Amino acid sequence: MHLGERLAATAMVVGVMAAATLAPTASAASGCDRYASPTGSDSSGTGSLNHPFGSVQGLDAALKPGQTGCLLAGTYGSVSTSHRLATNGTAQDPITITSAPGQQAKVVGLVEVEGSYTTVAGLSIDGSNNLYTGRRSGTNCAAPVSNGLEIDGTGDVFEDNDFYQSVAALRGNGIGIGWNHPADNAVIRDNRIHDLGQCQAYDQMIYLAHGTGVQIYDNWMWNDRHGWGIQVYPNASDAHIYDNVIDGAGSGIVLGGSDQVADNTIDHNIIMNSTGLPAAGVSGVGISTCCGLGSGNSFTDNVVYNNPGGIAAASGVSLSGNTTSAPNLADVTSHDYRTTSHTPSALTDWSLWDGGDDTGPVAVPAAAHTRAKVAHTRRRRARRRAAERRHVSRVLGARFQVRSAAS
Fold this sequence. Notes:
This protein is of the alpha/beta class. The chain has helices spanning 3-22, 26-30, 56-61, 345-348, 368-406, and strands spanning 34-36, 68-71, 74-76, 82-85, 95-99, 105-108, 110-113, 118-121, 124-126, 149-151, 157-159, 162-164, 175-177, 187-189, 192-194, 206-212, 215-217, 220-237, 240-242, 245-258, 265-267, 270-272, 287-293, 298-300, 303-305, 312-313, 318-320, 329-331, 336-339. The strands form 3 sheets. It has a 16-stranded parallel sheet that branches. Strands 1-2-5-8-11-14-17-19-21-24-27 form an 11-stranded parallel sheet. The radius of gyration is 24 Å and the shape is globular.
């Protein structure tokens, strides 16, 4: 090869290398670092798009802090499957398990989020499983029954998911936060949580057990007449629970268990159509308390509509600004809880969740009605960021005061 050919060949190689460097890979372009597919393999898969892993757990185990694992469309697991997510991210670089872009993955069985700084997002999760075999007393409390989805790490996020239990005979607790380890600073937001429970007063939609600084907001929750929408029991403090809709639960929210249930703020929720919990002696209210309670808990500016017991059966909780007025949401029968032009202005000022995915960038289309939707989303995000800043500031301030008192 003469010099000119060598130079041309060298230029071609350099050009190919440059193109390979500049052209994004399929993973980079999609935002996915690793993939799983129901037809993949944990033993022979590499996590690439062409050779995906075969399970949620296998995908999670391959991730490193800052990476995103994407589930290709299809169904993962069964009622006898436990999906254990044990990989840790970091506060700066969480790991994420989500559906692949433009696809919808369905996960069936028990999901256990044991790792810290893990985000589970954009999934359809049928939590029906036969993995809880513990003794349950009372009527309609048979076992086996579904073990609730577990969140037990620090800084975990559960967002934009549709979580339910489709097998009526296996319905039990919904989402358990801090059942096995304090789930400090967990965030549960923008989810549909529904069709749960069968054991009177035992099966809650969200069960916050242990952790400090937990945030639960912008969730639509419906159909669990056998339990509370949210239970905070027995050792959770500094939680902020706001902007949720709880429809058709046995009762709204309950706090109690010990003096460690303290400084929890509950505001701007809509709690409606509660059915009552005779086994617990609660007729269906916005908030109730039980079995010991710490100080600093508040229930403020909530709508409690069509609940047979009214606003509260709660001692030791500060109550103010709550109302029993009709919220006039879009279509409660179809579980569409968006606000409308008939919704009282006080509620529209809350900028409640509109049922969409608020995690991505906000586009700016031209249509006037779409511009209004974009403005609504931006207001929601600004309000959410302000609420989160206030929450973090309040938690840090409380911890500083505790340290100062101890020193």
